[in-house]
Amino acid sequence: MLKKYRQSFATSELGRLHALFSFLELARQMHLKSSALGRKSYFSPESKIALMVLKSYTNFSDSQLIEHLNGNIHYQLFCGVQIDPLHPLTNPKIVSAIRQELADRLDIESFQAILADHWKPYLENLHVCMTDATCYESHLRFPTDIKLLWEGIVWLHRHLCKHCRRLHIQRPRNKYLDVSRAYLAYSKLRKRRKSQTRMVKRRLLQLLEKLLDQLEQIHSSYRHRLTLSSDYQRRFSVIQMVLEQGKNLFAGKKVSKRIVSIDRHYLRPIIRGKETKSVEFGAKVNNIQIDGISFIEHISFKAFNEGVRLKDCIHLQQLTKVRVKALAADSIYANNANRKFCSKYHISTSFKRKGRTAKDELLRKILRSELSRERATRLEGSFGTQKQHYSLTRIKARNRKTEMLWIFFGIHTANAVYMIEKVEKRKRTAA
Known about the structure:
The protein has 431 residues and is of the alpha/beta class.
């Protein structure tokens, strides 16, 4: 029966997806090894990477992934594990632990080089480069000044009570209960006047400053009896920055590097200018695409101008070791420096022409139109596919490294599924 399952797995989409990843080479690049000390890991180094690909492919949560892994033979064959039906896996935190382990070792540049070498024989039109940027949103509530201040107050008050209980000291007086009632009444209002918002914001700022002062006094007075973790100290410093930024905003001053989440302090608002979403919160990624396959050129949780990164995009195209002859990009890339660079190296672009009309303007216009159409359909269409089907709609990772790993495997799992058709086409042509 197991032999029949292996045969059916090889011909299934999941089996063909497995063949498109060089899991052994990727595990070596990550320096993943099975430790001889301690309890033996249930998953091998190759299985850990396969599990991350499977999560992106299935679009399951961690608990759903473990539940389906216990009962699906093809999923077990994909990850290279055999699970006893009488002793199934019950801890969904295994997935998050593996994700954290891989995130600490992720090197996007070297990983993409391995994948490009593996997929290059099946790619065509390697001389055409398409580039664009998108934002992969993080899973968080829409931030407002009042919500952010209240979250900081709740966290500080909880730890203030905890410290006082542990130290057996009297809790300092503050107006937490009064402000909490005022905040609850304000949050229930359907329409809020500016004067009401300003009044509640002032009270929240005053209480937040009071709580920070009280906790700082406890920290300094009982430093030998308190053990403060690095996560606690980081969050405490983030709340101090939130207070400082809140005061400046209340006074009508501009704030740079604005914090939008205490839990994910590295996120910054990214203004995209869309009709439905003027601002997004997540990682902004500049991608290039080669024959429908996307590669990450630059990733950042802060806003950046992708128009100045065209040379880096063309340099990344060297993954295929083929010189770029045609480039399709948005109008934001069409600055004078990029135009001169493309003219110098004889690269045809989709940019609207400046200056006098050339002799072969008709042919150039047809080429520009074709490049623009391909970019708009293929590249921008791939963004929607990745977000809808490969766990990149709203990323639920809890820190910067795991969020980057989540994005990396989502993009390249979508690439591998797209590669299945290319491999089958090559086999039919060869036959």
